[in-house]
Amino acid sequence: MHYGARMFKKIVYFITLALMISVFLLASLSQAAPRGSMNPDISATFLGLYQNSSRLSDDRTVVPHNGFTLQEAEIQFTADIDPYLRAMAVFAFAQENGSTEFAAEPEEVYLETISLPRVTLKAGKFRTAFGRHNTFHTHIFPFIDAPVIHQKLLGDEGLNESGVSAAVLVPAKWYSEVTVQGISLSNSNMFGEWTNASTNSVSGSRNSGNVGALVHLKNLWDLTSDSTFEFGATGVSGKNSFDLVSSFWGIDMTYKWRPNEGGKYQSYVWSMEFLSGNRKGFTDGTTGASTENLGGIATWFQWQFAQRWWAQARYEYFGLPHPDAIPHQIKESILLGFFPSEFSGIRLQLDNITTQRIADDELRIGLQYNVSIGAHPAHTY
Fold first, then answer.
1. Residue pair 65/56 in contact by the 8 Å Cβ criterion
2. Which residues contact 339 (CB under 8 A, 6 or more apart)?
3. CA geometry: angle at 143 spanning 269 and 255, to 5°?
4. Is pLDDT of 196 > 80?
5. Which residues, 6 or more positions from 227, have their beta carbon under 8 angstroms from its beta carbon?
6. pLDDT at 13
7. Which position among 100, 112, 130, 137 has the lowest Cβ density within 10 Å, counted as fewest Cβ atoms?
8. Is residue 192 within 8 Å of 204, Cβ to Cβ?
């Protein structure tokens, strides 16, 4: 009994000592760790949408459809891990086509460096630097929907891939940045598609060992104290599901004007983007005609004429060059936006869509409310 009691005391002693050391270490680490690593910034954004058009379906399981719908909801977590790394996780909720149910998926989940001079490294799943519009989340689209060429070439989700990225600031008198990314090839619009029989899922290039390469050049000049001009060029390529190479390129230009005095009440933005792709091996599923070449242009103008009001116009042409299997399309849009604050907005958009081989134009109306709550980080300039 005496030996057992001593053993029991030793066990209690060592357990107590271990607990004290653990508490001391945890206290030290909590003081040394950045505050943001324990409490990430959390935000939520949701978009409500009403649409009406003779060409849209009245079937509620079809996306998009006439009537009211929740266009998208998004939850975002952002925090500095330590003095060297930052992490972001964005989860999007949207209706599944063919169902009234909503599905959640990781839109962006990545970590990036924050302390390396002139270089930012990134790894994870992210919206690639393919042009300008592709980097936008849905709630900061200039219009209710993405440009037609983005929808046709990049798909509903855009070029959103897993991979690694390195953005390097070029030593120049103006802002100049070169971004190089190695990405997966899961985008079915760009790299073909195949169906996994066990999961009934559709994906891009079947060989997961195939990695695509993307290079993006961004230049930004201060023209005056009130205005800036941005020019970007992008190229991306990778093996598709036909074991051939798909290659794509694009250019984008953006001019912004906001006066130092009165900039709260007036400003304007003009932007243009051209995208083109050669998807070798792609053919029309019905006729077998080639659909390899795909391209188009979108240009839009945004005018802030009062503190809370925006008027916008957009012109789009899809079908450059013009393959017989893909009808060309012209879309003209006007939009009026009312923004009570940076956290909410209501937008009314009217579209006129002309499609080759269809006699009558499509007239579409869309009404969207846009709400953000929480500590939402600043968007890309």
1. yes
2. 308, 309, 310, 345, 346
3. 15
4. no
5. 255, 256, 257, 258
6. 46
7. 100
8. yes
